[in-house]
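We modelled the chain as a single entity of 183 amino acids. Its sequence is:
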Amino acid sequence: MEKVTVNELLALDLKGKIVCFPTDTVYGVGAIVNDEAAIDKIYEMKKRDYSKPLAILTPNKNIDRYVIYTNKDVFKLMDEGWPGALTLIFQKSGIVSYSITNGLDTIAFRMPNSKIALQILNHFGPLATTSVNISGMPPLNDIEEIEKQFSEYIDYLVIDKENISGSPSRIIDVSNDTIKVIR
């Protein structure tokens, strides 16, 4: 694991790599969308079942190529909740990798309200992400603890600090006509 600042990270290649960084909610680990090797490393690190798909963090609301809009209220939810602690589940388009959705017809997106996360996302594009923890355990939000538990998996740990809430985002399924609150 290499500790880096955001500016140092922006000069690096993330292909095949996992990056850990703060968001507005919790610390997350991410990999470039469709980077199968790095995404597999995230699942291995978390001991996560492949039936649990990853979410995508996006730097903006421009996600049209990844999703199919099936709910008329989705744009209102995006306007009210993005950037912020709101994850929306959409019908996915055909360009989304199987490794992210694991065969599901849906995909989750969130636009964080985090200067650090948005800087990373604006540079590298959307990232497949999840919280830093063993699957089913509480998220880790302490850099030293993250380093202690996951240094063999995480390639880059962003050391810039930012205020985080410590609580995961709300999740709302907008993949069909009915809005369903998941968390």
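As a brief sanity check on the tokenised model: The helical segments are 6-9, 36-46, 74-81, 98-101, 115-124, 143-150. The chain has one domain: 2-181.
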